[in-house]
Amino acid sequence: MGVARQPVRVLVVNAGSSSLKLSLLGPDDEVLATGTGSGASAADFARSVGPVDAVGHRVVHGGSVYSAPVVVDAAVRRQLDELTSLAPLHQPAALHGIDTVSAALPGVPAVACFDTAFHTTMPAEASTYALPLAWRERYGLRRYGFHGLAHAWAAHRAPELVGVAPDALRTVICHLGSGASCCAVLEGRSVDTTMGFTPLEGLVMATRSGTVDPGLILWLLQQTTLGVAEVEDGLESRSGLAGLTGGDGDARSIVAAAAGGDAVAVAALDVWTHRLVQSIAAMATSAGGLDLLVFSGGVGEHQPSLRAAACARLAWLGVELDEAANAAATGDAVISPAGSALAVAVVTAREDRQIAGEVRALLGGSPTIPPS
Q1: DSSP secondary structure string, 124-135?
Q2: What's the CA angle centered on 97, arms 176 and 54, to 5 degrees?
Q3: pLDDT tens readout for residues 206-264
Q4: Is residue 370 over pLDDT 60?
Q5: For 298-324, what is the mean pLDDT?
């Protein structure tokens, strides 16, 4: 049997609930072209960038079916569509991206790479909800976890920065953006995460509530005039930092307002930080300790004051920052003092490289994670 040809130019299609990021990566994962926009833009971009050997699509939910990347054919496409109810904001966008780009590039293999796949290594005690067995079996109720592509990249990249092999570290990764989650990584594998059956569980996010008492949701539905659609919209689009401040939930403006003494912004960031540090400690427990703390995502990478606030509340765990390094960090950086027993790092989220690496591994036999 012949050796599969290594995909040289990989088009990465990263479709979010309200955004689309496109990038073409060359043979050494250099970025040859980038774009943003809509499904139509994806098709135009795909046709305009020259030869494409393979396309990697970020798909938020693989359910219990997919624990690794897969080439999309008609059967896979149907199964992904059947998972839409588990990620109603994200799955349709990913499917639209698959359809439009595949139509623009007929014959070019399309590979689905899953945000849930990295978390399929979670042990049963971390992935199981204490719900009736009949419900769990009939409806597939479990903790899936999300942001897996970003967490997988950081789980590889951060140990490189501190010069220690991943399998020798107990790591907590904080992927902090408009959506946010923490992940416990032991020996390079996810063993716990803060998001669950849906991306609503866990941390306070830009517009999502994070974890709330399920009894509160029942009370709203039973005791008020709010309907299911209104409650869903409130939890997904009008909660989190947006709900706490009455604004749009943009961390940049809230940090600026808090620095200027705005009491509402200060209180909102206190709530955000409280849930974050609580979750970091929980993830450290799941990992059996903490050797490496990682900040990633738009907020995690670009808000040094929020990193400092979180680390200050984790001093009891041995977390400390080099203040100058934290303030100056751009791109990948170690921000803990030299010689510190517990390292703290900032890692640029590179879902594009993670996806390209998974595509190459599936189609061409290269390592799953590309060299940095």
Answers
A1: HHHH--SS-HHH
A2: 95
A3: 999 999 999 999 999 999 999 999 999 999 999 999 999 999 999 999 999 999 999 99
A4: no
A5: 98
Specify the DSSP class assigned to residue 239: -
Helix axis angle for 39-48 and 91-104, nearest 10°, is 30
Which DSSP string do the residues of 246-271 spell out, in sequence order?
TS---HHHHHHHHHTT-HHHHHHHHH
CA pair distance 53, 67, nearest whole angstrom: 24
Token digits of residue 39 = 């499904």
| Distances in whole angstroms, Cα of residue 250 to Cα of each of 69, 212, 299, 300 | 33, 21, 9, 13
What 3 state SS string does 287-326 have?
A: HCCCCEEEEEHHHHHHCHHHHHHHHHCCHHHCCCCCHHHH
pLDDT confidence band for 184 (50 / 70 / 90): very high
Angle in degrees, 0-180, between the axes of helices 74-82 and 91-104, rounded to the nearest 10: 160
**Band of pLDDT at residue 371, cut at 50, 70 and 90:** very low
Q: What are the tokens at 223?
A: 């005791």
Tokens representing 191? 């063993």
**CB–CB of 200/89 below 8 Å?**
no
**Catalytic amino acids?**
115
Tell me, rounded to whole angstroms, the distance of Cα 268 from its chain centroid: 22
Q: Which long-range contacts (CB under 8 A, 24 or more apart) does 76-80 make?
A: 76/112, 80/112
- Assess whether pLDDT exceeds 60 at residue 365: no
User: Is 369's pLDDT higher than 50?
Assistant: no
Cα 265 to Cα 245, 248, 256, 299, distances in angstroms: 6, 12, 9, 16
Whole-angstrom distance, CA of residue 31 vs CA of residue 328:
25
Half-sphere exposure of 129 (CA within 13 A, CB side): 21
Tokens matching residue 233 = 């919209």
**Amino acid identity of 303?**
Q
Q: How far apart are CA 1 and CA 84, in angstroms?
A: 38
Q: How is residue 5 annotated by DSSP?
A: P
| Amino acid at residue number 367 | P
- The Cα 20–Cα 323 span in angstroms is 35
* Residue in this structure with the two tokens 């200060």, named with its chain if needed: 266
Q: Which burial class, exposed, middle or buried, applies to 85 when counting CB atoms under 10 A from its CB (0-12, 13-18, 19+)?
A: exposed
Strand pairing of 170-176 and 292-296? Answer: parallel
